[in-house]
Amino acid sequence: MKKRLGVILVVLAMIVVNVAGCSSTETTSDTRDVIKAGFIYVGPADDGGWSQAHDQGRAKMVENLGGKVETIVKENVPEEKSAVISTIRDMVDQGATIIFGTSFGFMDGMAEAAKEFPDVKFEHCSGYTTADNLGTYFGKIEEPRYLSGIVAGLATKSNKIAYVAAMPIPEVIRGINAFALGVKSVNPDATINVSWTNSWYDPTVEKAAAEALIQQGCDVTAQHQDSTATMEAAREAGKLSIGYDSSAATSLPEVYMTAPLWDFSGYYTDRVQAVIDGTWTSDQYWGGMNDGIVLLDTITALAPGVAQAQVDTATKAIKDGSLIIFTGELKDQTGTVRVTAGSAITDEAQLSMDWFVDNVVGTLQ
Amino acid sequence: MEIVFFLSAAVKAGTCLLYATLGEIISEKVGHLNLGVEGMMQIGAVIGFIAGFTSGNPYIAVLCAALAGAAGAMIYGFLTVSLKSNQVVTGLALTIFGIGFAAFFGKAFVGKKVPEAITIFFQPVKLPFLGDIPFIGNIFFNQSVYVYFSYFLVIMVYIYLYKTKWGLNTRMIGENPVAADASGIPVDRYKYFNIAICGALCGLGGAFLSLVYISIFPVNVVGGRGWIAVALVIFAMWNPGKAMLGAYFFGAMDIASFWLQTYNFPVSIYFFNALPYLATVFVLVFTSMRKHKNKKEPAWLGKNYFKEDR
């Protein structure tokens, strides 16, 4: 009996330590009439990538709104319905009135929780399910991705660019195609070689994938992954890199040229302010470079000298609307015309994109 | 040449598994099923990195990783050997603890780079003579010193288990602790020793990932590879030599899909991720059909020894 009790106590102690290590509650103020905003991340808040971009947006929002908001953060939440719902229940118990879910896989859990808590506002990043109290938000990351493609296309000498990508879903495919079109605009001979890891965050796997692509002759890497492992592989092989999500200018100065970045602070500030003002309504937000939710990082000295001017021209064209990235004629890998000459792609076709443009090498499975 | 590069990458990917598998073999040979491999690897990875980052010395980094892994194993050892608690539950608890421990202590170091001195120390070095053998040389003998040490360990573990008195006693305890106790072997002392070695090797396996494989410290660098090592022990039928082969096979499967994808090979990545476990199931079926004593698990694996029950 004593033995069993001992085991149970030890197990409990370990679980407590574990939980303490994985989650944290950030309180910024303890005055009475502050509202509480919950943030659910799929990875750690300091992953150097996706979740970090959201967490920086959150921190900036707290700063912008002064003492009017407190945030509750939960990291490493798995993309499972039950885990999402229990996290949300926990946050509502703690008094959250608006909850941001920052990964596509949280969608079903959030939709169900939105029914359970009709008084709480929900904001889901990158999904498509909406309700009266569930809105979606996302940014046109393909715009800065197109720009980063220009840099990569000018930088490559072997005309083979590595692209380590997480999952074959429309969001990622759209990014690869935009990148490929950016490359094509300056270097029609270059190919984009894609390798899937089937994981948003697994440094060892990402590195192995990048090493394989580099070995096959790629001399510039790009990525849709949340860690810096792809760029590390490039550094070891003496190649160049385009990052993603967060700047690697200080951590990997040997390879880093630029990266498409997110800046959620403006959106988070607006939405939380709307809750405070009582003006929040469910919306489907999809902002671009004009809103500042997506941007291209400063281009480093490693990039070819002509890159800056070309990127500046394209940036201006994107911002004034004269350059729409997915405009015809666009052919897929088999040569079939997907978007006819002169016409722009529809939003639905963008949101369900399941084909690669013709200068991409790789399969979609 | 691509196949050579692929195989040398497979050896690199399999090395962390090899360390952990050798450790788990030693633990299981003494009759202790330690499911805390993942946790001990996590502890080793984070402590190895912290020690390396603060000291800049590769020896200190590796030593601390081994000691930290062994310390984690001693928690398990105390609970299962002295308190006779359930091995499966204790092992799982150690894994949960290790993951939390690594997340907690690693947080401040995420994004930090392995010091240059350590990176240079663990750079691949081509061995004289051996490295010049065509094909084999580039695969096995153009690797990091950390990988070479694992070759050495395979031999050491084999000699320890099969050619020394201590190894014989260890295996006897795993097969029949009652008889071992009766013949005057200090059962508990052997158990503690072997469990600690298991932890040290798992710690080294984890530190390989954080110090050699990846050079910028990430969160959760082990990412479930500890569980592959547990399967690998069965796949290798508790044999250090076969563990080596198995580790490289499992390592190759880990990275195979990236190489085949570029040839438009129509097989899903999930198939390759599942293949090692499929192979383990086959080995289990196969060995249970053959009923060969040497290729089976130790008779007392997972059971605690109560002296009073004798």
Mind explaining what this structure looks like?
The complex is a heterodimer of chains A (365) and B (310). In chain A, strands 2-1-3-4-5-12 form a six-stranded parallel β-sheet, sandwiched between helices. Chain A has a six-stranded parallel β-sheet with strand order 10-9-8-6-7-16, with helices on both faces. In chain A, 39% of the residues lie in helices and 19% in strands. With 365 residues, chain A is α/β, with parallel strands linked by helices. The longest helix of chain A is centred in the N-terminal third of the chain and has 21 residues. Chain A contains eleven helices and 16 strands. Chain A has two domains: 141 residues, Rossmann fold, CATH 3.40.50; 183 residues, Response regulator (Rossmann fold, 3-Layer(aba) Sandwich), CATH 3.40.50.2300. Chain B is an all-alpha fold and 310 residues long. In chain B, helix 2 crosses helix 10 and helix 2 packs across helix 11. Chain B is globular. The mean pLDDT of chain B is 91. The interface between A and B is large, with 50 and 49 residues.
